[in-house]
Amino acid sequence: MKCPFCSHSETPVVETRMAEDGDFIRRRRQCGACEKRFTTYERADVSYPVVVKKDGRRIDFDQSKIVGSMKLALRKRPVSTEQIDSAMERIQEKLLTSGLREVSSTRIGELVMRELKKLDKVAYVRFASVYRSFEDIDDFKTLVNEVNN
Prior knowledge:
6 strands, three-stranded mixed beta sheet
């Protein structure tokens, strides 16, 4: 690791700490030349499948888009941020363990709907109505009956 101050290549670690949540390691380093200290962070580099959109475009997986959609569906509903984060972690885990290099946006939508159904039935109906592009009230009735059963 090069020193960010003088670009010297010898920067030994003087202290290592695990983050509270265990997601990364924090390392304090000291430059061998200028003796200034700086911090680096080490975390696992995971590779999510590429998302294939309905029109055939391929885009990188973006967790923030999924969380944003979930939060929109859950707006003014009694669901905590921790519950949303846990649901997102389950979705990410399913994608990572699938072993697929590509995943359809439809599959991701189904995973989101499954998690929303567990969290909040109203949010599930909100998301599903947009995701499935409901055309009339009968589509809503069918979905509500499905949720109630």
